[in-house]
Design a protein that fits this description.
By secondary structure, the chain is of the alpha+beta class. The chain has helices at 34-48, 87-104, 112-115, 122-138, 142-164, 202-209, 216-230, 237-257, 261-264, 268-289; strands at 9-15, 21-28, 58-64, 69-75, 169-171, 180-183, 187-190, 197-199. The protein folds into two domains: 9-75; 82-289, Alpha-Beta Complex (Aminoglycoside 3'-phosphotransferase, Chain: A, domain 2). It is built from ten helices and eight strands. A hairpin with a 3-residue loop joins strand 6 (180-183) and strand 7 (187-190).
Length: 290
């Protein structure tokens, strides 16, 4: 099956005893995917089992360490991805994201035990920088590595501190257009919750905003409206904008860590570092003018 999952995914057509055909998705976790096993299977069992947040319905799950079988049998929500859709559907996606984040906004502690979720805490953000640095060192890029160190010395501590002060919620973790299916009526169906975590909302928002320029304000307004309609804790708009900026940096560190395609292009790493320098420079200018 065509997809972006890091584990094998198959499309099945199951015949029930009644003779009814039930299309479903079978996701089998590889033995090496212990981190993913510990969260996606149990997240479905504890939080997403009844199609919560319009995730695919859970038909069955196997979570057996003794046989090393960790399987999910899920509703087949189709293959029409958000990336194929017009901007009005993207607005619906941002509204969905706002509603999803609102459900646990400022109450993320409720998720720790039931979902066995990792946390985007200060240690996570500092680890992103550490892993990115290791990647640069392995790639033999001394000039880029030196520049990277100077930039991290300039803004990493501040970024970690400010992100640490933002109320957290359930985040999808890889909220991009190929992980969001769309059904009739612009119904948003998010799939592949492998990277779900407890973190700041901006992590998902920045990921979904990637590649958009002129529509940014429209999408953010749709997100904020949906969030404010349902969240029990009010969000600080200025803190949210700052967290968007810091999460843009964190996602760039993520790309360096995994040596994404943008890093492999000539001058790619320096373009990423230029972007980080601009983001942190803009934040410093805002502080000096307050």
């Amino acid at each position: 099956m065509d997809g972006f999952s890091t584990n094998p995914v198959s499309r099945l057509d199951v015949t029930l005893e009644s003779g009814e055909h039930l299309p479903m998705i079978f996701k089998r976790f590889l033995p090496k995917a212990s981190r993913v096993i510990a969260q996606e299977v149990r997240l479905y069992q504890a939080v997403l089992a009844n199609g919560e947040f319009d995730a695919p319905a859970l038909y069955a799950a196997v979570d057996d360490d003794s046989t090393n079988r960790h399987w999910l049998f899920l509703e087949d929500v189709g293959d029409w991805r958000l990336e194929y859709c017009k901007t009005d559907v993207w607005v619906a996606a941002f509204r969905w994201l706002g509603r999803m984040h609102a459900a646990f906004y400022g109450q993320a502690d409720e998720l720790v035990a039931p979902g066995h979720l990792p946390e985007h805490d200060p240690a996570f953000h500092r680890a992103l920088a550490g892993f990115a640095r290791q990647t640069l060192a392995r790639r033999g890029a001394p000039e880029e590595l030196g520049r990277f160190d100077r930039l991290m010395g300039q803004g990493l501590d501040r970024a970690i501190a400010e992100l640490g002060g933002v109320p957290r919620t359930l985040v999808h973790g890889d909220c991009c257009c190929h992980n969001i299916m769309v059904q009739d009526g612009s119904r948003i169906r998010p799939i592949d919750w492998e990277w779900a975590a407890i973190g700041v909302p901006a992590w998902d928002v920045v990921r979904l905003l990637e590649g958009w320029g002129d529509e940014r304000d429209r999408f953010l307004a749709a997100y904020a409206d949906a969030m404010s309609e349902q969240a029990t804790t009010a969000a600080d708009s200025r803190a949210f904008e700052n967290s968007l900026a810091h999460c843009r940096v964190m996602l760039k560190l993520w790309r360096i860590r995994w040596w994404a395609k943008a890093c492999q292009e000539p001058g790619g790493v320096n373009r990423i570092l230029n972007s980080i320098e601009t983001i942190w420079g803009d934040l410093e200018s805002e502080v000096s003018h307050v």
